[in-house]
């Protein structure tokens, strides 16, 4: 018996030594990787905290990388979350394209950034990988065909008419008005009424913040909060924390909200089938009725995951983009005038934007493009390597988290020359620019499936805005950029409106 015990003890000791050597070797590999001349350091490395003492919020990391780029011109940055979670960030077209062209999966395992979003968004298109992602992307693509998108334009007009009426009342005395919060409600209203045929009329219900909007706002903050606090990665510890209790409370509400939308649609489909002339085909219809080659549709959980994902991505990122575009109108009056003149030429006396008008608004499209370059709605996207890859001569091993910092990429001085200057014509004057230098909707096979939906909505909204009002800046207010899952202003975006 003692001999058996001794043999087992020896085996266990050997395994522990082997594991320990493997951990040390991996750690040394990461240290060598981080110390490469190809990688830009963001500051002094702490033996325990890594770089967490430098980045209490994700916004701090974005600013450190942007500053480092200006000083060094490097294409890759590195950060350690405590001493055992090394992460690389690409911030140049040469390195970003390697990642975005690949089929590498999203990092959502324990200790990886997307891990903190999974309880909320589940395994929808943003987070799913491999065959599941390929299947669901294929099933959902018909939901964004122009035949489906075209009828949405009437709803865009209606929603934004309501928004503009609210803005007109708020600025009747010549005072400035905050536009970020009201447009989040408008964007949610658009999503529910168009993609889900759910007539909530959220903008008209009250002046108070809708609990869904507040839930999304807090969840986008709490996910980055948790990502930068590795001691909260274990679920049982996170659930015991105040942040975790708040996170799961909001998640519960949002899931219940989305499940009600789905239940109502199932009931509607029973009374008004898709073949009925009275039923307008939308995103949720396609989600509920899509079938793969084997005739298998999405499960109830898969449907909810896609609704969770699309409702969040479709309203919050669009609201961010349009809010910053309105701010850009107020700060660039000459460019606003060019947009106004084009809108006047295309629409004439009409106040309703039609489907055929959207493609004619080329100046507006350039304006929106430049606004999204300067104020990237989604600051970053990530991947996890499944094999060794080469990033500009840097050999990156498998199982490495790598992120494309879109905001830094879209604002590199060595790429854009004068990135702080708002100049829509740069997209005409420099057509030879690397396409991966501007990726507001990501790029490659995993680009945003709903980008045309978002752009159409924003073009209708901006066209109606400049036709009705001259947008002016509030000289007493400057927005404070905050980088979370979505870029927003910490103190709102205030403008003045002058009736034309």
Account of the protein in words:
It is a single chain. The protein has 500 residues and is α+β, with helices and mostly antiparallel strands. It has one domain (36-499): Cytochrome P450 (Cytochrome p450), CATH 1.10.630. 54% of the residues lie in helices and 10% in strands. The chain has 21 helices and twelve strands. The protein has helices spanning 2-34, 58-72, 93-101, 118-121, 130-140, 146-149, 152-170, 180-194, 202-205, 211-227, 235-240, 242-271, 283-289, 300-331, 333-347, 355-358, 362-374, 406-409, 413-416, 426-429, 451-468, and strands at 39-41, 76-81, 85-90, 177-178, 380-384, 389-391, 394-396, 401-405, 469-473, 481-483, 487-489, 494-499. The strands form four sheets. Strands 1-2-3-8-5 form a five-stranded mixed β-sheet, with helices on both faces. Strands 4-12-9 form a three-stranded antiparallel β-sheet. The protein has a two-stranded antiparallel ribbon with strand order 6-7. Strand 1, helix 2 (58-72) and strand 2 (76-81) form a beta-alpha-beta unit. Residues 18-22 have low confidence and may be disordered. This is Leukotriene-B(4) omega-hydroxylase 1. Its cofactor is heme. One of its GO terms (molecular function) is oxidoreductase activity, acting on paired donors, with incorporation or reduction of molecular oxygen. Keywords: Heme, Iron, Metal-binding, Monooxygenase, Oxidoreductase. It comes from Mizuhopecten yessoensis.
